[in-house]
Amino acid sequence: NAQRLTARRRTSETIAAEENAPGSGRIADSARSRALDVKPGYTIVCLPILEWSFRFQRPQQLARRFARAGHDVLFAKHSFGDALTTHPIEAGIDEVELPGTPGTNPYRDRPSDADVKRMADALLAHLAERGTGRFVVVVQLPFWSGVAIRMREIAGCDLVYDCMDLHAGFS
Predict the structure, then answer these.
(1) What is the pLDDT of residues 61-87, one digit of tens each?
(2) Angstrom distances, CA of residue 122 to CA of 19, 79, 128, 166, 168
(3) Taking the CA of residue 29 as centre, how many other CA atoms within 13 Å lie in the half-sphere pointing to its CB?
(4) pLDDT digits (tens, 9 = 90+) for 103-146
(5) d(Cα 64, Cα 100) in Å, to the nearest integer?
(6) pLDDT band at 16, cuts 50/70/90?
(7) Could you give the CA distance from residue 129 to residue 70 in angstroms, rounded to a whole number?
(8) What sign has the CA pseudo-torsion 37, 41, 45, 46?
(9) Shortest CA distance to 96 belongs to which of 119, 121, 118, 71?
């Protein structure tokens, strides 16, 4: 049942045509989106290879650049709790703890189908509450692929797989 993240070629013409199409990356559920003040730009949801405070590398550098360019950034933690919680890391960047099974190790474990659903649905609800219009999910660890795919299936967001390491070399 493995699903692959696939790239699709986009041109200025296809991007313009997609802006108002169904599944355009905007929160699709009319109950959630009917009264939102949608923020300009787009939000980056970073499903990272490492924790924000572990070591300052490319994931944090990219997040900081996006925030400085005016985009909101949600940077997921590798620990999980009962509900989605956030706290600001720095201007424009919030660290997000997702609902999931405590003790799950993103380097060793796979999330259950129930956890994938809880994580994706919690992120989508949080994005709707924030008034997020378009958003992009940046995946840096295969652990997160089910969450990202579910978000794309529901909201039509774009996905970016940022391959940081040769994962097969890790145990």
Answers:
(1) 999 999 999 999 999 999 999 999 999
(2) 24, 15, 10, 30, 30
(3) 13
(4) 999 999 999 999 999 999 999 999 999 988 899 999 999 999 99
(5) 26
(6) very low
(7) 19
(8) negative
(9) 119
Strand partners, 98: 80
For residue 27, with 0-12 CB atoms within 10 Å meaning exposed, 13-18 middle and 19 or more buried, which class applies?
A: buried
Q: For residue 45, how many C-alpha atoms fall within 13 Å in the half-sphere facing its CB?
A: 29
How, if at all, do strands 42-47 and 73-81 pair? parallel
Please state, in angstroms and rounded to a whole number, the distance separating the CA atoms of residues 47 and 80: 13
What whole-number distance in Å separates Cα of residue 18 and Cα of residue 70? Answer: 22
For residue 14, the SS3 value is helix
User: How many Cβ atoms from other residues are within 10 Å of residue 33's Cβ?
Assistant: 15
Surface-to-core class of residue 152, CB atoms within 10 Å of its CB (0-12 exposed, 13-18 middle, 19+ buried): middle
Assign 5 to helix, strand or coil.
coil
Q: Which two tokens stand for residue 150?
A: 């579910």
Tokens found for residue 130: 């924030």
C-alpha to C-alpha distance for 66 and 82, rounded to whole angstroms: 29
